[in-house]
């Protein structure tokens, strides 16, 4: 290996050259200073700096159907202005090639994370510089507003700068397509076509030489007002007002959610003050995801202070929604519903509304979500679709009435938005809870009624986090090549490798095990975190299904540890 010797630490010349080339085109003084300091330390023989540099330039953040996501730092394997500029230029080249003789258009949104506004403006200038009509949303706004704007403005594409519920140090970049894609996130082969254009630009051009133009439009309030009106219209009749505590989790959801609730004729929620406004540092949560332990502690404390009937939580870009209800037996007096439980109630709501309107359509959920929604569809004589994970698939189900994924993502308004929408989902939950309260019932009572009517279902998850990413494909390969015959006392009666495409769906890196008692285990690597996830689902005639769930989780934990 060629290299230069700096003390006792050999440094690959190619690594230094790549870092120097990156530094030369970086327009951001913060990441320039950061990388300059690392290079100086490397040349001084610092082995930790050498390892850091190698990691930052070990490859490129891969552009896929979920766009880009990573730590905001210098380097090709991080999120920064160089990488985002290359991505924007690649998207521009893709759109221009696709448009032929017409002029494509793009709407860009951004959240409150570090550099979101900077990445959005860079993208606007670069896309405008290659002749694309660009509209930039006027301030940090929820992802669902951007997804709505793609359809409302009739643009060729949309870009949202967000890392959703990732750790505070991260940011990301995701892409929607208009026209025949109707505002859904990109799917293959579009991701590969864009990635090819990005790599071409990264190889051939400095971002400092890419054409830029300030001639882009700033969207006015009409787009946001239209989203608020369309979302508020989901409430048919104003239900009984409830005392609702809301947390934006230091994200961008508060302003829009409060406007939507008020427009629907309901009182403004009680905000968790410390988490109401956007704050890229996320100071009150270790991990800004409502599903994480402790994330709702402040919301529960606020709910106790105000005697609240309900807690609604959005993640930082407000495309996900979590719910907690009063429960004296739960820690803090509130029980957080699972993503599946919320999906059951919202799916049941959609089925009831469809029946009342005489409307036929489909309910849908992802392969890792509970099979309970299929039973709802069956009883209401609706179509049912099971999709791959991600709303890029859920939103494309024909005649969709409602779709969800267990990771607290819900699409209750497919006529308005073709992506998960935590704002509209929160409103739908408020409507359900208010209607139940008028009858002297709670959401907990509705879950009991759901079990009586559709059967008893139980779901759980086991996640294995890795520091060595190479262990993830190794584990998946081992489970494929030498799967167990038993899980505790239960026989594994069927193993399905979902990497094999079928006529109904593309292949995906996942396994499905069916057990002798009808339980199901789905296994897949996370798309956004260094984890392998095991999704457990059971079904039975009574609450003993929960005992089965505990047993299966215990047996699975033992198997994985081996």
UniProtKB/TrEMBL annotation:
GO BP: carbohydrate metabolic process; purine ribonucleoside salvage
Cofactor(s) required, per the database record: Mg(2+)
Residue ranges of domain Alpha-D-phosphohexomutase C-terminal in the record: 507-547
Keywords of this entry: Isomerase, Magnesium, Metal-binding, Phosphoprotein
Superkingdom as given in the UniProt entry: Bacteria
Coiled-coil residue spans: none
SUPFAM superfamilies: Phosphoglucomutase, C-terminal domain (SSF55957), Phosphoglucomutase, first 3 domains (SSF53738)
Classification via InterPro entries: A-D-PHexomutase_a/b/a-I (IPR005844), A-D-PHexomutase_a/b/a-I/II/III (IPR016055), A-D-PHexomutase_a/b/a-II (IPR005845), A-D-PHexomutase_a/b/a-III (IPR005846), A-D-PHexomutase_C (IPR005843), A-D-PHexomutase_C_sf (IPR036900), A-D-PHexomutase_CS (IPR016066), Alpha-D-phosphohexomutase_SF (IPR005841)
Residue span(s) of domain Alpha-D-phosphohexomutase alpha/beta/alpha: 61-201, 225-324, 339-452
Gene3D superfamilies named among the record's database cross-references: Alpha-D-Glucose-1,6-Bisphosphate, subunit A, domain 3, Alpha-D-phosphohexomutase, C-terminal domain
Any Pfam family hit: PGM_PMM_IV
Molecular-function GO terms, alphabetical: magnesium ion binding; phosphopentomutase activity
Keyword Zinc: no
Family: Belongs to the phosphohexose mutase family.
Name under which the protein is recorded: Phospho-sugar mutase
